[in-house]
Automatic annotation (TrEMBL):
GO molecular function: oxidoreductase activity
Record SUPFAM superfamilies: Clavaminate synthase-like (SSF51197)
Name of the protein described by the UniProt record: TauD/TfdA-like domain-containing protein
Pfam families tied to this protein: TauD
InterPro entries: AlphaKG_dependent_hydroxylases (IPR050411), TauD-like_sf (IPR042098), TauD/TfdA-like (IPR003819)
Statement: the UniProt record of this protein carries the keyword Nucleotide-binding: no
Keyword NADP: no
Organism: Capsella rubella
Domain TauD/TfdA-like residue range list: 66-352
Length: 357
């Protein structure tokens, strides 16, 4: 009997030691999984790469051990480091990790611990997929989506965005990104009087919405999905909460937002940023209901000079970084620091998104 008890105790101790060793090994692997790497499309600003790129160290992590749970645990373990990296670079691309589905992407988003941001007041047509994940702008593939800060046309906007490539495009379809403070500095140097007017008056955004979504339009979100209700009274209440004027039309609604600041001050980085959707609205808010040249004006209602708007677009294109999507890529963007866009593409392409406070 005594021998049996000793054997049982010994086996228990051995199993416990093995579990502890496995846990210790997993922790070490998780802590060494995130490695800063370089890709050809990166740019350097103030000695920092843009975007930062994180990949697994291929030599030290055996392929069978590279799992989604290990990746999400690595994120949790190294959250302060990742926060610092995002703050310094403005965007972080995670490449080479086993994120193989929308559910896996949702797990990655959850691992960061950011609060979810509800998509109320945005213009892009989107569909919910799973958890905190929805489709990116579902406008037709031949259409370009111009540069913008996410939901810059409303007072409340997400501070961070995630994008995930579930199906990489056959051709094109990049999500170009550009540092907002760089755009501000270049515009201020080249068009100081225009920038001064923007800082004084802000911008006014006008959009005409149908009742239901129009997938043929890059701004085709109907009023029901824009305000997440079919009740007009509730829609009016939610519009008012955003500081938005809502006027009902025969077959939809007209929204007027502003004046709203076009230049914001990023307190965490002590610099001004080009925080607006001016170029996006002026060059891209076009469909059967909307005239883009009337979609955005100075805050006092005066029209914007077309030549300066298009010059701003030129600056955005010159300063941007466009990394071709690969399946499994996860791109984290600081919405305070970075504008983004979408290039036309040849299908198939499926990029998912998640917004965070």
């Amino acid at each position: 009997m005594l021998s049996d008890r000793n054997d049982t105790t010994t086996k228990f101790v051995i199993r416990k030691q093995l579990r502890e060793q496995e846990t210790e090994t997993e922790t070490k692997m998780a802590d060494s999984l995130l490695l800063e790497t370089r890709i050809t499309q990166q740019k350097q600003y103030e000695s920092k790469p843009f975007p930062a790129v994180i990949s697994p160290p291929s030599s030290s992590i055996p392929i069978p051990a590279l799992s989604l749970p290990l990746f999400t645990q690595s994120i949790k373990n190294q959250k302060p480091y990742l926060d610092s990296l995002l703050h310094g670079s403005g965007a972080v691309l995670f490449r080479g990790f086993p994120v193989n589905s929308a559910e896996g992407f949702n797990d990655v988003v959850e691992a960061f611990g950011f609060d979810e941001f509800p998509y109320v007041g945005g213009a892009a047509p989107r569909s919910s997929v799973v958890g905190r994940v929805f489709t990116a702008n579902e406008s037709p593939p031949d259409q370009k989506i111009p540069f913008h800060h996410e939901m810059a046309q409303v007072p409340e906007f997400p501070s961070k965005l995630f994008f995930y490539c579930e199906v990489e495009p056959k051709c094109g379809g990049e999500t170009p990104i550009v540092l907002s403070h760089v755009v501000y500095e270049r515009m201020k140097d080249k068009h100081p009087e225009f920038v001064q007017r923007l800082e004084e008056h802000g911008l006014l955004y006008v959009r005409v919405l149908g009742e239901d979504d129009d997938p043929s339009s890059p701004i085709g979100r109907g009023w029901k999905s824009t305000f997440l209700t079919q009740d007009k009274n509730l829609a009016e209440q939610r519009a008012a909460n955003l500081g938005m004027k809502l006027e009902w039309t025969e077959d939809g609604a007209k929204t007027v937002m502003g004046p709203i600041p076009a230049i914001k001050y990023d307190e965490s980085r002590n610099r001004k940023v080009w925080f607006n959707s001016m170029v996006a609205a002026y060059t891209g808010w076009e469909d059967k209901r909307n005239d883009p040249t009337k979609a955005v004006t100075f805050g006092d209602g005066k029209p914007l000079p077309a030549d300066i708007v298009h010059d701003c677009l030129k600056i955005l294109e010159e300063e941007c970084v466009a990394v071709p999507w690969q399946r499994g890529d996860v791109l984290l963007i600081d919405n305070w620091a970075v504008l983004h866009s979408r290039r036309p593409f040849d299908p198939p392409r499926r990029v998912l998104a998640s917004l965070c406070k």
